[in-house]
Design goal:
Layout lengths: L2 E4 L3 H7 L5 E6 L2 E8 L2 E6 L13 E2 L4 E3 L6 E3 L5 E3 L7 E7 L2 E5 L1
Antiparallel strand pairs: 1-10, 2-3, 3-4, 4-9, 5-6, 6-7, 7-8, 9-10
The structure holds FE2/S2 (inorganic) cluster.
Length: 106
């Protein structure tokens, strides 16, 4: 498992990610999506497992789900479980926020 770090402090990384926005980030040769709700960070695969639409153009619901922009399938943040739609679950990556910034493990 590899660890990638974003930001140099908790405050810096929180400032980098607007609340409930989805940003695409490149970690090594891989691009993923990262979203923040309060001090909780969620990292997940960039392309929807249904028909590969870009989840970076999706949005976050009040129920902490990411919604795909193409067919509006929904996935629970954190677990990646499909909550609405018919495809496999979303692959999610572990995140750890600490005084040195955000660590993403995969
Ligand atoms: S491509 Fe994402 S729901 Fe169809």
């Amino acid at each position: 498992m590899r660890e990638y770090r974003l930001g140099r402090s908790k405050e810096e990384v929180i400032a980098l990610f607007p609340e409930r926005a989805i940003k695409q980030v490149a970690l090594g040769d891989r691009k993923i999506c990262v979203a923040r709700i309060g001090e909780r960070f969620f990292a997940f695969e960039r392309l929807c497992p249904h028909r590969m639409a870009s989840l970076g153009e999706g949005w976050i619901t009040a129920f902490d789900e990411v919604v795909c922009p193409l067919h509006q399938y929904r996935f629970e943040l954190g677990s990646g479980r499909v909550s609405s739609g018919d495809c496999r679950d979303l692959i999610c990556f572990q995140t750890v926020l600490d005084d040195r910034g955000l660590a993403i493990l995969f």
